[in-house]
Amino acid sequence: MSKRNFGMMLVIFGVAVLCCACPAFAEYGGEKIETALTRTIEWSTKIIGGGLTVIGIIYVGVRMAMHDERALSKGALVVVGGLIIFLSNNILNLIKGIAGY
After folding, report:
1. Distance between CA 37 and CA 59 in Å, rounded?
2. Residue 87 domain-assigned?
3. From CA 89, how far away is CA 40, in angstroms rounded?
4. What whole-number distance in Å separates Cα of residue 39 and Cα of residue 32?
5. Is the pLDDT of residue 81 over 80?
6. Is the backbone of residue 22 left (phi > 0), alpha (psi -120 to 50) or beta?
7. Is residue 5 part of a domain?
8. Total tally of structural domains belonging to the chain
């Protein structure tokens, strides 16, 4: 058997495996999916918000060392945006508490 025939057989086998349908019982794991999604959202907001905050602080420091007059206003926007993302879960809980939800 040549390498070309082996490669073609491998591709055909791969396509056949990918085309096989198998049932997905998502209704039985609803709570696990919700918990995993909640943890993923909390993790991503902390990572993105914290990262933006650190980048903003570093940006302000470097640009102020370079004597840029507008560095504080630009960096402050990045820091405030990062803090809003970082604290979004707590802000949402505060709004839910005020609304009585």
Report:
1. 32
2. yes
3. 12
4. 11
5. yes
6. beta
7. no
8. 1
